Amino acid sequence: xxxxxxxxxxxxxxxxxxxxxxxxxxxxxxxxxxxxxxxxxxxxxxxxxxxxxxxxxxxxxxxxxxxxxxxxxxxxxxxxxxxxxxxxxxxxxxxxxxxxxxxxxxxxxxxxxxxxxxxxxxxxxxxxxxxxxxxxxxxxxxxxxxxxxxxxxxxxxxxxxxxxxxxxxxxxxxxxxxxxxxxxxxxxxxxxxxxxxxxxxxxxxxxxxxxxxxxxxxxxxxxxxxxxxxxxxxxxxxxxxxxxxxxxxxxxxxxxxxxxxxxxxxxxxxxxxxxxxxxxxxxxxxxxxxxxxxxxxxxxx
Length: 301
Description:
Layout: E1 3-13, H1 16-27, E2 30-31, H2 33-36, E3 41-45, E4 53-57, E5 62-70, H3 73-85, E6 90-92, H4 95-101, E7 105-110, E8 116-121, E9 148-152, H5 156-166, E10 170-177, E11 188-194, E12 202-205, E13 215-219, H6 223-235, E14 240-247, E15 253-258, E16 264-269, E17 283-285, E18 289-292
Parallel strand pairs: 1-4, 5-8, 9-12, 10-17, 13-16
Antiparallel strand pairs: 1-5, 2-3, 3-4, 6-7, 7-8, 9-13, 10-11, 11-12, 14-15, 14-18, 15-16
Protein backbone atom coordinates (compact mmCIF):
# COMPACT_ATOMS: atom_id res chain seq x y z
CA UNK A 1 0.00 0.00 0.00
CA UNK A 2 1.07 3.58 -0.55
CA UNK A 3 0.27 4.89 2.94
CA UNK A 4 3.12 3.91 5.28
CA UNK A 5 2.22 5.38 8.68
CA UNK A 6 0.23 7.88 10.70
CA UNK A 7 2.65 10.78 10.41
CA UNK A 8 0.96 13.61 12.28
CA UNK A 9 -2.34 14.79 13.66
CA UNK A 10 -3.85 18.25 13.66
CA UNK A 11 -6.00 19.41 16.58
CA UNK A 12 -8.49 22.28 16.86
CA UNK A 13 -8.31 24.15 20.17
CA UNK A 14 -10.27 26.99 21.73
CA UNK A 15 -7.40 27.56 24.19
CA UNK A 16 -3.90 26.88 22.91
CA UNK A 17 -2.47 27.23 26.42
CA UNK A 18 -4.38 24.21 27.70
CA UNK A 19 -2.83 22.07 24.98
CA UNK A 20 0.63 23.40 25.73
CA UNK A 21 0.29 22.37 29.37
CA UNK A 22 -1.09 18.97 28.43
CA UNK A 23 1.37 18.22 25.63
CA UNK A 24 4.51 19.40 27.42
CA UNK A 25 3.84 18.90 31.11
CA UNK A 26 1.84 15.66 30.96
CA UNK A 27 2.72 13.87 27.69
CA UNK A 28 6.31 15.11 27.72
CA UNK A 29 6.31 16.42 24.14
CA UNK A 30 8.73 19.17 23.08
CA UNK A 31 7.22 22.50 22.08
CA UNK A 32 8.76 23.56 18.76
CA UNK A 33 6.36 26.43 18.18
CA UNK A 34 9.07 29.08 18.56
CA UNK A 35 10.73 27.94 15.35
CA UNK A 36 7.74 26.52 13.45
CA UNK A 37 4.59 28.14 14.77
CA UNK A 38 2.77 31.42 15.00
CA UNK A 39 0.13 32.93 17.27
CA UNK A 40 -2.53 30.61 15.87
CA UNK A 41 -0.67 27.32 15.52
CA UNK A 42 1.55 25.43 17.95
CA UNK A 43 3.72 22.39 17.19
CA UNK A 44 4.83 19.48 19.38
CA UNK A 45 7.74 17.13 18.69
CA UNK A 46 8.11 13.44 19.57
CA UNK A 47 11.19 12.37 17.59
CA UNK A 48 13.41 13.60 14.76
CA UNK A 49 10.43 14.87 12.82
CA UNK A 50 9.88 18.62 13.30
CA UNK A 51 6.51 17.84 14.91
CA UNK A 52 4.00 15.03 15.24
CA UNK A 53 1.12 17.10 16.65
CA UNK A 54 0.03 20.57 15.61
CA UNK A 55 -2.66 22.48 17.47
CA UNK A 56 -4.47 25.34 15.75
CA UNK A 57 -6.71 28.02 17.25
CA UNK A 58 -10.34 27.32 16.55
CA UNK A 59 -13.87 28.07 17.75
CA UNK A 60 -14.33 24.43 18.81
CA UNK A 61 -12.18 21.71 20.36
CA UNK A 62 -11.59 18.42 18.55
CA UNK A 63 -9.55 16.57 15.98
CA UNK A 64 -8.82 18.57 12.85
CA UNK A 65 -7.19 15.93 10.66
CA UNK A 66 -4.95 12.88 10.35
CA UNK A 67 -1.75 13.14 8.29
CA UNK A 68 -0.74 9.89 6.54
CA UNK A 69 2.84 9.54 5.31
CA UNK A 70 3.83 8.06 1.96
CA UNK A 71 7.39 7.32 0.84
CA UNK A 72 7.70 9.66 -2.10
CA UNK A 73 5.83 11.49 -4.85
CA UNK A 74 5.06 8.15 -6.51
CA UNK A 75 3.37 6.94 -3.35
CA UNK A 76 1.34 10.14 -3.08
CA UNK A 77 0.38 9.86 -6.76
CA UNK A 78 -0.83 6.31 -6.06
CA UNK A 79 -3.08 7.65 -3.27
CA UNK A 80 -4.41 10.29 -5.69
CA UNK A 81 -5.06 7.63 -8.32
CA UNK A 82 -6.89 5.41 -5.84
CA UNK A 83 -9.10 8.29 -4.69
CA UNK A 84 -9.82 9.25 -8.30
CA UNK A 85 -10.73 5.69 -9.24
CA UNK A 86 -13.11 5.52 -6.26
CA UNK A 87 -14.69 8.86 -7.14
CA UNK A 88 -13.48 10.49 -3.92
CA UNK A 89 -12.84 14.23 -4.18
CA UNK A 90 -9.45 15.48 -3.03
CA UNK A 91 -7.46 18.71 -3.16
CA UNK A 92 -3.74 19.13 -3.76
CA UNK A 93 -2.10 21.29 -1.10
CA UNK A 94 -1.25 24.87 -1.96
CA UNK A 95 2.21 26.32 -1.43
CA UNK A 96 1.33 27.87 1.94
CA UNK A 97 -0.10 24.65 3.37
CA UNK A 98 2.82 22.56 2.13
CA UNK A 99 5.27 24.98 3.74
CA UNK A 100 3.28 25.00 6.98
CA UNK A 101 3.21 21.21 7.18
CA UNK A 102 6.95 21.10 6.34
CA UNK A 103 6.61 18.46 3.62
CA UNK A 104 7.28 18.29 -0.14
CA UNK A 105 3.70 17.78 -1.29
CA UNK A 106 0.32 16.78 0.12
CA UNK A 107 -3.31 16.24 -0.73
CA UNK A 108 -6.45 16.53 1.40
CA UNK A 109 -9.58 14.39 1.43
CA UNK A 110 -12.52 13.41 3.62
CA UNK A 111 -13.51 9.83 4.41
CA UNK A 112 -17.15 8.64 4.15
CA UNK A 113 -17.69 9.32 7.87
CA UNK A 114 -16.64 12.96 7.48
CA UNK A 115 -13.19 12.62 9.08
CA UNK A 116 -10.57 14.86 7.46
CA UNK A 117 -7.23 13.51 6.23
CA UNK A 118 -4.04 14.55 4.48
CA UNK A 119 -1.54 12.34 2.66
CA UNK A 120 1.99 13.64 2.13
CA UNK A 121 5.64 12.82 1.49
CA UNK A 122 9.06 14.27 2.22
CA UNK A 123 9.23 15.59 5.78
CA UNK A 124 11.60 18.54 6.22
CA UNK A 125 13.73 17.67 9.25
CA UNK A 126 16.90 18.87 10.94
CA UNK A 127 17.08 15.43 12.63
CA UNK A 128 17.36 16.91 16.11
CA UNK A 129 16.41 14.36 18.76
CA UNK A 130 13.54 14.88 21.16
CA UNK A 131 14.37 17.16 24.07
CA UNK A 132 11.47 16.30 26.33
CA UNK A 133 10.68 18.87 29.04
CA UNK A 134 9.75 15.95 31.29
CA UNK A 135 12.77 13.81 30.49
CA UNK A 136 10.87 11.25 28.43
CA UNK A 137 13.57 9.06 26.89
CA UNK A 138 11.74 8.65 23.60
CA UNK A 139 8.61 7.62 21.74
CA UNK A 140 8.28 4.54 19.53
CA UNK A 141 7.82 6.08 16.08
CA UNK A 142 10.03 5.62 12.97
CA UNK A 143 8.43 3.29 10.43
CA UNK A 144 5.54 2.76 12.88
CA UNK A 145 4.54 6.42 12.76
CA UNK A 146 3.37 8.47 15.73
CA UNK A 147 1.07 5.76 17.08
CA UNK A 148 -2.53 4.94 16.26
CA UNK A 149 -5.84 6.75 16.09
CA UNK A 150 -9.42 5.52 16.52
CA UNK A 151 -11.99 7.47 14.50
CA UNK A 152 -15.79 7.57 14.62
CA UNK A 153 -17.50 5.76 11.75
CA UNK A 154 -21.30 5.67 12.19
CA UNK A 155 -21.64 4.62 8.52
CA UNK A 156 -19.34 1.72 9.24
CA UNK A 157 -19.64 -0.38 6.09
CA UNK A 158 -18.92 2.54 3.76
CA UNK A 159 -16.04 3.85 5.86
CA UNK A 160 -14.32 0.52 6.48
CA UNK A 161 -14.58 -0.36 2.77
CA UNK A 162 -12.98 2.98 1.94
CA UNK A 163 -9.92 2.37 4.10
CA UNK A 164 -9.48 -1.26 3.06
CA UNK A 165 -10.51 -1.26 -0.60
CA UNK A 166 -9.45 2.25 -1.62
CA UNK A 167 -6.50 3.12 0.64
CA UNK A 168 -5.22 -0.44 1.15
CA UNK A 169 -5.28 -0.82 4.93
CA UNK A 170 -5.28 -4.40 6.23
CA UNK A 171 -7.64 -5.68 8.92
CA UNK A 172 -5.80 -6.64 12.13
CA UNK A 173 -8.66 -7.66 14.42
CA UNK A 174 -12.21 -6.76 15.28
CA UNK A 175 -14.65 -6.45 18.17
CA UNK A 176 -18.46 -6.44 18.45
CA UNK A 177 -19.48 -4.27 21.37
CA UNK A 178 -22.49 -3.55 23.55
CA UNK A 179 -22.14 -0.89 26.23
CA UNK A 180 -25.11 -2.02 28.36
CA UNK A 181 -26.43 -5.44 29.55
CA UNK A 182 -29.49 -4.93 27.31
CA UNK A 183 -29.44 -7.74 24.72
CA UNK A 184 -31.54 -5.55 22.44
CA UNK A 185 -28.84 -2.87 22.26
CA UNK A 186 -27.50 -2.88 18.70
CA UNK A 187 -23.95 -4.19 18.36
CA UNK A 188 -21.32 -1.61 17.48
CA UNK A 189 -18.36 -2.76 15.43
CA UNK A 190 -14.77 -1.76 16.28
CA UNK A 191 -12.18 -2.71 13.67
CA UNK A 192 -8.43 -2.23 13.90
CA UNK A 193 -6.33 -1.82 10.75
CA UNK A 194 -2.65 -1.75 9.89
CA UNK A 195 -0.46 -0.02 7.31
CA UNK A 196 2.96 -1.04 8.72
CA UNK A 197 4.29 -3.47 11.33
CA UNK A 198 2.52 -1.69 14.20
CA UNK A 199 -0.43 -3.93 15.11
CA UNK A 200 -2.82 -1.15 14.17
CA UNK A 201 -2.46 2.44 13.07
CA UNK A 202 -6.19 3.03 12.60
CA UNK A 203 -9.34 1.99 14.43
CA UNK A 204 -12.93 2.60 13.32
CA UNK A 205 -15.78 2.61 15.86
CA UNK A 206 -19.40 2.40 14.70
CA UNK A 207 -20.48 5.44 16.71
CA UNK A 208 -20.32 9.23 16.33
CA UNK A 209 -18.05 11.22 18.64
CA UNK A 210 -18.39 14.94 19.42
CA UNK A 211 -14.60 15.47 19.34
CA UNK A 212 -14.25 13.77 15.96
CA UNK A 213 -11.89 11.20 17.47
CA UNK A 214 -12.21 8.41 20.02
CA UNK A 215 -8.56 8.35 21.03
CA UNK A 216 -4.98 8.78 19.91
CA UNK A 217 -2.25 6.43 21.16
CA UNK A 218 1.37 7.38 21.71
CA UNK A 219 3.91 4.72 22.71
CA UNK A 220 6.96 5.33 24.91
CA UNK A 221 10.07 3.19 25.37
CA UNK A 222 9.11 1.32 28.52
CA UNK A 223 6.45 0.82 31.18
CA UNK A 224 8.30 3.05 33.66
CA UNK A 225 7.69 5.97 31.28
CA UNK A 226 3.98 5.08 31.30
CA UNK A 227 3.93 5.21 35.10
CA UNK A 228 5.81 8.49 35.19
CA UNK A 229 3.29 10.02 32.78
CA UNK A 230 0.46 8.82 35.01
CA UNK A 231 2.16 10.57 37.95
CA UNK A 232 2.28 13.78 35.89
CA UNK A 233 -1.39 13.30 34.94
CA UNK A 234 -2.35 13.05 38.61
CA UNK A 235 -0.28 16.13 39.50
CA UNK A 236 -1.89 18.11 36.68
CA UNK A 237 -5.39 16.91 37.63
CA UNK A 238 -6.05 15.51 34.15
CA UNK A 239 -9.05 13.18 34.07
CA UNK A 240 -8.31 9.45 33.95
CA UNK A 241 -10.59 7.74 31.42
CA UNK A 242 -9.17 4.22 31.47
CA UNK A 243 -7.08 2.55 34.16
CA UNK A 244 -3.76 0.85 33.53
CA UNK A 245 -4.09 -2.42 31.65
CA UNK A 246 -2.71 -4.61 28.85
CA UNK A 247 -4.76 -4.84 25.66
CA UNK A 248 -5.57 -8.25 24.23
CA UNK A 249 -5.07 -7.24 20.60
CA UNK A 250 -1.88 -5.16 20.43
CA UNK A 251 -0.57 -6.15 23.91
CA UNK A 252 -0.07 -2.47 24.80
CA UNK A 253 0.34 -1.68 28.51
CA UNK A 254 -1.36 1.69 28.82
CA UNK A 255 -3.78 4.05 30.49
CA UNK A 256 -6.17 6.60 29.02
CA UNK A 257 -6.65 10.27 29.88
CA UNK A 258 -8.84 13.04 28.50
CA UNK A 259 -7.11 15.60 26.31
CA UNK A 260 -8.20 19.26 26.17
CA UNK A 261 -9.76 18.46 22.79
CA UNK A 262 -12.30 16.11 24.34
CA UNK A 263 -10.89 12.91 22.88
CA UNK A 264 -8.75 10.51 24.92
CA UNK A 265 -5.00 10.00 24.72
CA UNK A 266 -3.78 6.46 25.33
CA UNK A 267 -0.23 6.46 26.70
CA UNK A 268 1.44 3.07 26.49
CA UNK A 269 4.45 0.81 26.03
CA UNK A 270 5.31 -2.71 24.87
CA UNK A 271 3.03 -2.59 21.83
CA UNK A 272 2.95 -5.59 19.52
CA UNK A 273 4.43 -5.52 16.02
CA UNK A 274 3.83 -7.96 13.16
CA UNK A 275 6.67 -8.54 10.68
CA UNK A 276 4.87 -11.07 8.44
CA UNK A 277 1.28 -10.06 7.91
CA UNK A 278 0.75 -12.88 5.39
CA UNK A 279 1.22 -15.36 8.25
CA UNK A 280 -0.96 -13.40 10.71
CA UNK A 281 -4.45 -14.64 11.52
CA UNK A 282 -7.15 -11.97 11.91
CA UNK A 283 -9.26 -12.58 15.03
CA UNK A 284 -12.26 -11.28 16.94
CA UNK A 285 -11.65 -10.18 20.54
CA UNK A 286 -14.43 -10.64 23.08
CA UNK A 287 -12.46 -8.75 25.74
CA UNK A 288 -10.68 -5.43 25.50
CA UNK A 289 -7.74 -6.41 27.68
CA UNK A 290 -5.97 -9.27 29.43
CA UNK A 291 -6.19 -7.21 32.61
CA UNK A 292 -7.07 -3.67 33.69
CA UNK A 293 -8.41 -0.92 31.41
CA UNK A 294 -11.48 -0.10 33.48
CA UNK A 295 -13.19 2.55 31.37
CA UNK A 296 -15.97 3.15 33.90
CA UNK A 297 -13.66 5.69 35.59
CA UNK A 298 -14.17 7.94 32.59
CA UNK A 299 -17.87 8.22 33.38
CA UNK A 300 -17.31 9.15 37.04
CA UNK A 301 -17.58 12.80 38.09
